[in-house]
Design brief:
- By secondary structure, the chain is mostly helical.
- Helix content is about 50%, strand content about 0%.
- It has one domain (about 5-45).
- The chain has two helices and no strands.
- The model has no long low-confidence stretch (mean pLDDT about 75).
Length: about 50
Amino acid sequence: MSKLSEEEKLVVTQELIKHVAKLKKLGSNKPGFRGVPEKATLDEIFMPDN
C-alpha cells in the first residue's frame, strides 16, 4: 500500500470499510457457523428449513 497514491489509498480504505461492515452483518465470527438474524424466532434457529 506504500506505493499507492493518496487517492488510491482513500479508495482502498473505503472499500475495506464496506467489506468489514458487510462481514459484521453476516452474524457470526465462527467459521462454519451460519449467522443467526438478530430477531430470529426459536423455530427459525432450530428448524431453518421449515
